[in-house]
Design brief:
Elements lengths: L2 E5 L4 H13 L3 E6 L6 H4 L8 E5 L13 E4 L6 H4 L3 H22 L4 E7 L22 H16 L7 E6 L1 E3 L16 H10 L4 E4 L5 E2 L1 E3 H13 L6 E5 L5 E2 H8 L3 E4 L14 H6 L8 H8 L1
Parallel strand pairs: 1-2, 1-4, 2-3, 4-5, 5-6, 6-11, 7-10, 8-13
Antiparallel strand pairs: 9-12
Helix pairs in contact: 1-7, 4-5, 6-8
Length: 302
């Protein structure tokens, strides 16, 4: 039985990954989370499972990884806009936490596979549509830069130590638990979840700019599957993969799928005009393909 660690287990993606691994493997899973953006309620359904052990902890307080074969590193702080203001907090959460994990591995001379939750934000507004992993990096925010910086640390440290890693560059995850109304800074909070929450409360959907910005939306269960397949690949990969649906939808069209009550607010700086994943590398190497459709998800939520 494999022993694995999930950092950020109480967050949107972490908790869905936990559910997937409990349902589809016999692994023993330890999850850590400081609950700064995650929610205890996200993992409450697994608390009595003997194969799951939860520890309320910061990544920086981990002293050993020796018992683990796989580390899913999802712990992160919010999103693009807050990273311009709370700079130091984001550097610690999005970069230094991961570096600490690497240092523990080096100290113990034990190198479990790291499956790192990266971000398509590193591409900025890409030159090529759809976008593959060779797209020039063009970070438009501190958040994007921090996510890419840790990718580069993995790459550089692996030239000296036997790191075994996979980076998954998520496009725009959505799905159950993607928005916590009690915590507007929930990591990976999705516009899909925000819009659905506004609809539920009878409020106008707020569209930034003209709503023509386009996004590639990927269901969190497809993200969980990608994490699993990356973790069990028989070869050391030490590379990155785009994880998106391979399609694109404007924010305005998304809003119209959910409600006829919407209004416009000023455009936000630091966000891409379009995200659209070329996932052929993940299809070929990981044997991964998305299974979920956003329109079906929204119909089920309304």
């Amino acid at each position: 039985m494999k022993k694995v660690l999930i950092t950020g287990v109480a967050g949107f993606i972490g908790s869905n990954l936990l559910d997937f691994l409990i349902d589809n493997t016999d692994w023993h899973i330890t999850g850590i989370d400081n609950l700064s953006t995650g929610s205890d309620s996200n993992i409450s359904g697994q608390k009595d499972n003997k194969r799951f052990n939860f520890i309320k902890m910061d990544c920086m307080h981990l002293t050993s990884l020796k018992e683990y074969e796989i580390v899913f590193h999802l712990a992160a702080l919010p999103r693009i806009q807050p990273s311009f203001e709370l700079i130091n907090e984001h550097v610690v959460a999005n970069l230094l936490n991961g570096i600490h994990l690497i240092e523990v591995m080096i100290k113990e001379n034990h190198f479990p596979r790291i499956v790192y939750s990266g971000s398509s934000a590193i591409y900025g507004t890409p030159e090529h549509i759809p976008t593959d992993e060779n797209e020039p990096i063009s970070c438009l925010s501190p958040y994007a830069f921090q996510k890419y910086e840790f990718e580069k640390y993995l790459e550089l440290i692996s030239t000296r130590y036997p790191l075994d890693y996979v980076t998954l560059r998520y496009f725009n995850p959505y799905g159950p638990r993607s928005f916590n109304p009690l915590n507007k800074f929930n990591a990976y909070s999705s516009v899909v979840g925000i819009f659905l929450n506004l609809k539920k409360n009878g409020e106008n959907l707020l569209i930034t700019g003209d709503g023509q910005q386009k996004r590639d939306f990927i269901h969190v269960c497809d993200v969980a599957l990608a994490n699993y397949l990356a973790s069990i690949h028989p070869e050391k990969l030490n590379t990155s993969f785009n994880i998106g649906n391979g399609s694109t939808l404007s924010i305005l069209d998304l809003a119209k799928m959910i409600s006829d009550k919407y209004s416009f607010i000023p455009k936000r700086e630091g966000e891409a005009e379009i995200t659209f994943a070329n996932t052929s590398k993940a299809n070929k190497v990981l044997k991964w393909a998305p299974l979920y459709n956003i329109s079906d998800f929204i119909k089920g939520e309304l």
